[in-house]
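Look over this today:
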Amino acid sequence: MFEKYFYKDIAEIPYMIVGAVLIYILMIIYTRIFGLKSFSKMTGFDFVNTVAIGNILAMSLATSNPTWLTGIFLIGLLYLMNYLISILRNKSKTMRGMLDNSPLLLMENGAIIYKNMNAAKVTEDELIGKLREANVIVLSQVKAVVLETTGDVSVLHSDKENIELADYLLKDVKR
């Protein structure tokens, strides 16, 4: 009765081990070639790339669909495309403007910017959760809350009320 759950694929275990080791080694090689930024979440492209690579990796190892060779090729192609997009973004401000979202200001100097919250579909409960994560005690400590291009939320705060936020930190942030 339990044989199909425990012994069905037992003959494939050596092939799974070979596939896992092979893909693992190639992931290390790809990362060395294209850089650690391939796994960052600095841009939406980085995030999508990481999710897609993880999905292809898991499917290739667990189901062999796509096959290991196809998975290795697709993962390499994703690394390459992400690398090329990074080059385009770095070389051209026009391309950066076309490819990147702008970060969005959700709070400034303790005040919630409801227009931006609504535009980003962020609820007040979600904002409160992020403020608690950042150990904000009172709203007057909050200098800015920014919804980053990756979907992360940055909370810039200080317990010193007379400190001004550096303009550089809000460069290119939509108000």
